[in-house]
């Protein structure tokens, strides 16, 4: 069972603009960098296991695309052996690891409020509001998938509405629908800031692919820290969760 510490604590809060939120996220990320890498390594190991189980070989697919000479008219991911199973298992992995990302947000808050961080903090999402985190992960994943299936760009316009969901689930112990509704309403009223913050945050998160493929391990978790900084900007610094 968890409660919130009632006394005020130290910690920084960014202004309600994109530049301030991203700068705050950078400062926080530098302090929790190693925990973010651990979370990504867990995700990558899970992905490799899934690839082994499904029989889908992403390396072979990339080589086939490269050898096509730019003619992708006859190429289809769906025809690749094991891709359907790989896609299904990857989606399940993403849902099951959502509490791990929530744990990273919790660690960021402990760093911001000058509280001692323990490795077990990374797994708090499996103890705190676990079911609602999973439900929210499914709902937000479906919304994002629909946006991506329509066209790549709509995803950037939809994702800002989901930006505060995970911090609300953690710090307010809200239900999945409450988190979705509150995140939507706050982002809708401040959409320009949320859109700018999301675009910059996502671009930085995927920068590791551009700079060096393995670099994605170092950059991808950044968007989770952006979620925390945006929460601080619009809802205030969270009080520390304590377990009784």
What does this protein structure show overall?
The chain is an all-alpha fold. It has one domain (18-63, 78-235). It contains twelve helices and two strands, in the order βααααααααααααβ. It has a two-stranded antiparallel ribbon. Mean pLDDT is 85; it is low at 3-8. This is Beta-carotene 15,15'-monooxygenase. One of its GO terms (molecular function) is monooxygenase activity. Keywords: Membrane, Monooxygenase, Oxidoreductase, Transmembrane, Transmembrane helix. It comes from Chryseobacterium piperi.
How is this fold's topology laid out?
Elements: E1 2-4, H1 18-54, H2 58-67, H3 83-96, H4 98-112, H5 130-150, H6 152-158, H7 165-171, H8 176-189, H9 191-205, H10 207-211, H11 216-219, H12 222-235, E2 241-243
Antiparallel strand pairs: 1-2
In short:
This protein is mainly α and 244 residues long. Helix content is 67%, strand content 2%.
| Distance N to C terminus | 6 Å
- Per DSSP E runs of 2 or more residues, the count of β-strands stands at 2
Number of domains: 1
**Largest β-sheet summary:** 2 strands, antiparallel
User: Rg from C-alpha positions?
Assistant: 19 Å
Question: What is the number of helices?
Answer: 12
Instruction: Give the class from helix and strand content and strand pairing.
Output: mainly alpha
Can you give the mean pLDDT? 85
Give me the strand/helix succession.
EHHHHHHHHHHHHE
Give the overall shape.
globular
Strand order across the largest sheet:
1-2
Low-confidence stretches: 3-8
Report the portion of residues in β strands.
Answer: under 5%
Report helical residue fraction.
55-70%
Oligomer: single chain
């Amino acid at each position: 069972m968890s409660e919130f510490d009632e006394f005020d604590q130290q910690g920084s809060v960014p202004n309600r603009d994109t530049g301030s939120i991203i700068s705050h996220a950078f400062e926080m990320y530098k302090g929790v960098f190693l925990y973010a890498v651990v979370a990504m390594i867990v995700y990558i190991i899970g992905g490799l296991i899934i690839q082994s189980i499904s029989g889908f070989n992403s390396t072979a697919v990339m080589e086939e695309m490269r050898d096509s000479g730019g003619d992708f008219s006859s190429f289809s991911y769906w025809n690749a052996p094991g891709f359907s199973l790989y896609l299904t298992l990857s989606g399940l992995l993403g849902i099951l690891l959502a509490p791990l990302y929530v744990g990273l947000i919790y660690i960021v808050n402990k760093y911001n409020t000058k509280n001692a961080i323990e490795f077990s903090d990374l797994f708090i999402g499996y103890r705190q509001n676990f079911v609602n985190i999973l439900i929210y992960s499914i709902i937000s994943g479906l919304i994002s998938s629909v946006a991506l299936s329509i066209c790549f760009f709509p995803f950037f316009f939809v994702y800002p509405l989901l930006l505060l969901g995970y911090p609300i689930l953690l710090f307010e112990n809200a239900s999945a629908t409450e988190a979705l509704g509150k995140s939507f309403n706050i982002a809708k009223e401040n959409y320009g800031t949320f859109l700018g913050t999301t675009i910059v945050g996502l671009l930085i998160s995927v920068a590791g692919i551009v700079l060096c493929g393995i670099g994605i391990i170092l950059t991808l978790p950044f968007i989770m820290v952006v979620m925390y900084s945006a929460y601080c900007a619009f809802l205030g610094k969270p009080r520390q969760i304590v377990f009784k």
